[in-house]
Amino acid sequence: MALHVMDEANQCLGCKKPRCQQGCPIQTNIPEVIRLLKANKLDEAGRKAGIVR
User: Fold this and answer.
1) What is the distance between the alpha carbons of residues 34 and 24, in angstroms, rounded to a whole number?
2) CB 13 within 8 A of CB 31
3) Count of CA atoms in the C-beta half-sphere (13 A) of 9
4) What's the structural domain count of the chain?
5) pLDDT value at position 1?
6) 47, 53 in Cβ contact below 8 A?
7) How far apart are the C-alpha atoms of 2 and 51, rounded to whole Å?
8) 7-51 residue pLDDT tens
9) What are phi and psi of 29, to 5 degrees?
10) Single pTM value for the model
């Protein structure tokens, strides 16, 4: 993954007032998806995000 994407993801995980989940129409657990992506668990992250079945 591009370094700037990982930098942004790290900032998201440290967010004190995450509004991303409330703003997501399908209530995706975005911090969990980011953690899975960082752990290189791409398929599992895709399933959690509702992108991959």
Assistant:
1) 15
2) yes
3) 16
4) 1
5) 57
6) yes
7) 20
8) 888 888 888 887 887 888 888 888 898 899 889 998 999 898 888
9) -80, 85
10) 0.71
